[in-house]
Amino acid sequence: MSDVDRRNASESAAAGGTARRQLTALGWAELLLFVRAKSNLVNVLFIPALVLVALTVTMNLYDLDALGLALGPVMLATATGIVLVFSLYVPLTGTYVARREELLLKRLRTGEVGDTTILLGSALPAISIVITQMLLIGAIVIPMTNAGPPAAPHYIIIGIVLGCIMMAGFAAATSAAARTSENVQVAIVPLLVLLPSTSGTFFPLEAMPQPVQDVFHWMPMTPIIDLVRAGWTGDVEPAEAMLRIGLLVLWTVIALGAAHRWFRWEPRV
Amino acid sequence: MLQRSGLAQDLTVAETLHMWAGCTSHPRSVDAALTSVGLHDRKRVAVKNLSGGEQRRLDLAMATIAEPELLFLDEPTTGMDPEGRHATWQIIRKLKETGTTIVLTTHYLEEAEMLADRLAIMHAGQIAAAGTLPEIIDQHPSRISFEFPAGFVASDFPPAEQFGADWVHERGRRIEFSTTNLQFTATELLTWARSRNMTLTGLDARSASLEEAFLHIAENSADGAVSESLEQEVSA
What we know:
heterodimer, A: about 80% helix, B: alpha+beta, 8 helices
């Protein structure tokens, strides 16, 4: 290791430490704000409960056995979709708009923190809530449906991690469309409807006509649902799984590109 | 001034500073920063419940968390009550004593006069005058004005040069002189009046001040646009 290498290594280690410290500071502040908004706490507990009740009812409407599906993995995949939309996409869009309105984003940008760190720091609480909710739901659904442990957990992890990044990207991009906090409820509607209904979140895609399935197969959230489901059943060819991961990566890049292109740091005048 | 100065309204004072310290290299302790701006006993109060002046002081605590060598303060006391303004001046003096170089903009002349080592008056986007306070004031004359009693006319007075002054104007019975030597002019004028048993009412002798200099610069501008002053404060 040359001196230059060593210096670069210690510099990047210092930079890594700085980024971690900044993310902790921003994430902690955002978590405090999250906890302080009472409606958020209700959502965190309410959404998983609602998901479980709704799923148990709706899944009985479909003849899953005839579609070749097992109840446990379907419920877990569906829960992933709902949690990603309602616990990450929706609140994070609101968070970005609120921080923009408060001029907090503008102030943070005057400091040392990089743009990506600011956006990621604000997203950290929502992401940790997604993971907490998934664990809660898993802890209830797995014993309830005798789903057993996942056969290929790495697909589930990849699906959820990329899903979180993609949803954060969509949230940042959507926040540009909402002029004020009041407009957030309108700005989120398109993706709120599109993402779950085209991915098999609200109802299994297998229950739809083949041409519809062929189109929805390529939509942003479909690979997440597929990966979580396949990760549980293990019922997937590695090549097919790679294709689904590739598609999810592509949508994640598109979401981040949209965020990069449209995100607004200051309120419109 | 920003209505909401870029602070999360639902965080407390201490939480806001902790966040900012975490985003800054080599911060001093949050408690030290809070004490220095006199907000220590308000540390658990939500930002939205702070008064305007307290928010500006929190602003100042954030700006000084890394103990900067150079600090820009844009109208730090605008919208403050007199108490908050005095507290802020005290903070700025302390920062100055510890060796911070401060560039401060303000509309308050007394603030500039009191705090600045060097100051510059901006007018219509240009620096119209710059230097230390005496340097700027010395470029502008002192003024003395009075009313002469009924029964006299302005032409009863000798030429202003006799008092070492310049004739500025007369309005009704009020006459105004400008002078670079206020003591001499005042003495000559009062001696002259006593020798004639004349009572000068509403006698007003004013040394050159920053306000005079400022008004002079504003008046002499062709467009009469609203002036803005900027002063620089440089510590050793």
